[in-house]
Design brief:
By secondary structure, the chain is α/β, with parallel strands linked by helices. The protein has helices spanning 76-81, 108-122, 134-145, 168-179, 185-191, 200-207, 217-225, 235-245, 267-273, 292-308, and strands at residues 10-11, 17-19, 37-41, 44-51, 58-62, 85-89, 99-100, 127-132, 150-156, 252-256, 283-284. The protein has one domain: 3-Layer(aba) Sandwich (Rossmann fold), CATH 3.40.50.1820. Helix content is 34%, strand content 16%.
């Protein structure tokens, strides 16, 4: 489908209008041979990758904005090589998952609820969460609400905001995300990496979920959902999540790119506030930009594996 094409809009039983990216957009993805699986979440189809031994401990990889589970292509092989099962969902509004067309359909609480429903269907109590960007804002909320199903947390270039002001880099991104005529996700990923150059095929893979603006309501709305003021409706739930994390004693590792102008300054907040993070072999990666998975994926996996073993 080319920009300007008229997408088929469907509706859930609850009246949520959504579009579904044509599958041909995902043909010939470089370095991503994994077949999608699908589940129903509140009438929306949620896509995910599920690889490795079914009974092995699960590495749950949660992406952020404006990416999809393709972001983890440089990490999945290394995690599979050490015997883990790898599960990587596409958030609603991203990747192969359905995309509500109204921006009002996307809320912070709604994303937490969708991911929590997804985790319930896994029926596991040994999840190793890797979260970055919005994967952290959502994943850490879910972990705090359901700590019994997580054995370890790996936190990378994210934040769990409680209504305090965010970095100048984030505020600049928030403004830019609303002003740009079209959100070229391939070009955004290229600008946000420092250690490597993406190929044109890789950039096209990041563009694949969004044939045109109708598909981008979630990508547009996400930056506005970050609670940066005390009166934001997400603040009480995030504060409650921090209370749980401040008592969390299970192992927590932070793997960080301090060169990230948006979230590179937040590593210490997790190390200092979460008991399970104390004394762990935290790492920083230089050079690396915001999307550490794409910049330094194999090195990130090596740090995770060394820590777990």
């Amino acid at each position: 489908m080319t920009p300007g094409a008229n997408p088929a809009v469907m509706t859930t039983r609850d009246g949520v209008a959504f579009v579904r990216t044509p599958e041909e957009r995902f043909a010939s993805l470089p370095d991503f041979p994994y077949q999608p699986h699908y589940i129903d979440v509140e009438g929306l189809r949620m896509a995910f990758v599920d690889e490795g031994p079914p009974d092995a401990p699960v590495a749950l990889l949660v992406h952020g904005e404006p990416t999809w589970c393709y972001l983890y292509r440089r990490m999945i092989p290394g995690l599979l090589a050490v015997g883990l099962r790898v599960v990587a969902p596409d958030l609603i509004g991203f990747g192969r998952s359905d995309k509500p067309v109204e921006r009002s359909s996307y809320t912070y609480a709604g994303h937490v609820r969708w991911v929590s429903s997804f985790i319930e269907l896994l029926e596991r109590d040994d999840l190793i969460l890797f979260c970055q960007d919005w994967g952290g804002l959502i994943g850490l909320r879910v972990a705090a609400e359901r700590p019994e199903v997580f054995s370890r947390l790996v936190i990378a270039n994210t934040v769990l905001p409680d209504g305090s002001p965010m970095s100048d880099g984030f505020m600049a991104w928030q403004r830019a995300s609303q002003a740009m005529a079209f959100m070229d996700c391939g070009a955004l990923l290229q600008r946000a990496t420092q250690a490597r150059e993406l190929t044109e095929a890789e950039m096209d893979a990041y563009r694949a979920p969004f044939p045109e603006e109708t598909y981008m309501a979630g990508a547009r709305q996400f930056p506005l959902l970050v609670p940066t003021t005390p009166d934001d409706p997400a603040v009480p739930a995030n504060q409650a999540a921090w209370k749980v994390l401040e008592e969390w004693t299970k192992p927590v590792l932070t793997l960080w790119a301090p060169g990230d102008q948006v979230l590179g300054m937040y590593q210490a907040s997790f190390v200092e506030r979460i008991p399970g993070a104390r004394g762990q072999p935290h790492r920083t990666f230089v050079p690396s930009g915001h999307f550490i998975q794409d910049d330094c994926g194999p090195d990130v996996v090596a740090a995770m594996v060394a820590w777990m073993t």
